[in-house]
Amino acid sequence: MGIHTADAIVLRRYPYRETSVIVTCLTNRYGKLKGLVKGLMVQPNRHRGAMELLTINRIVFYDTHSSQLHLIAQCDLAAPFLELQGSLETMRTAAFCAELVDTVVPLEEPQPAIYQLLKDTLGRVALEAGMLTAVRVHFVARLLRLAGFQPQVDQCTGCSCTIQSEGYWSARHGGLLCSQCLHEDPKAEAATPDLLTALEELLEAAAPSALEPGLLSALSHRLDEFLQWRLDRPLKTMNLIRSAEFGTRNAESKADHSELRIPNSELPV
């Protein structure tokens, strides 16, 4: 039985019996782990704020080598990210990042780069509420690259020919199709050189970049499509984000139309 210490970001948490909880967390040294924290619910003073969702904790756990559920013997809150609770939008974005990591990252494979990406992204979400879409798009692109799961944008997914500046986006085929392979997905839409360049830069970028709103929206839509087709299960948080964005667009559209209405007093007689 080994004893290990690590910093851990809590991705998922649910009760176990009456006094304990089971958590899924991403650690800086051991990858994604599942752990049992005994007595957490009956010792609130000892573990004040520890092992809550989307917090960073310093944990000590026992590795029995006989199960993927480890015993977490000690947990101390290191970073609470209280700013994430500032709005529904920030909470949705942070929860989406955690759910995507939980879906993409396998258990017990060291992923220090993905841990650092998630930690940095949660910090950006907490402090840069006005850039949530840009932060989310960057996170998705980088996570897919680090996990070896990124869309194929330099070669045709049908015939593997090189695609330099244009192609047709096919989420169902995992990237781009050339004109000769367009018959494999007739609904594939042309991807502009600007979109392909921006996506390739995001896959390697250390931080989000300022993008023109239309281009940012197109990238967000394309990556969401890719996730819907390529993941084994749908993301609940993605539906929440898309519903919120749809509601915002509807509200803005109604506001724009209301500004165009002419008051009755100004109508010609």
Overview of this protein structure:
This protein has 269 residues and is of the alpha+beta class. Helix content is 38%, strand content 22%. It is built from six helices and eight strands; from the N terminus they run E-E-E-E-E-H-H-H-E-E-E-H-H-H. Strands 1-2-3-5-4 form a five-stranded mixed beta barrel. Strand 6 and strand 7 form a beta hairpin. Helix 1 packs antiparallel against helix 2, helix 1 packs parallel to helix 3 and helix 1 packs antiparallel against helix 6.
Summarize the structure in short.
38% of the residues lie in helices and 22% in strands. It has 269 residues and is an alpha+beta fold.
Structural class: alpha+beta
SSE pattern: EEEEEHHHEEEHHH
| Relative strand content | 15-25%
Shape designation = elongated
Mean pLDDT: 87
Outline the biggest β-sheet.
Answer: 5 strands, mixed, barrel
**Total strands:** 8
CA radius of gyration is: 22 Å
Helix fraction by DSSP (H/I, runs of at least 4) = 25-40%
Distance between the termini: 89 Å
Question: Taking strands numbered 1, 2, ... along the chain, how are they ordered across the largest sheet?
Answer: 1-2-3-5-4
Note the total helix count: 6
Low-confidence stretches: 255-269
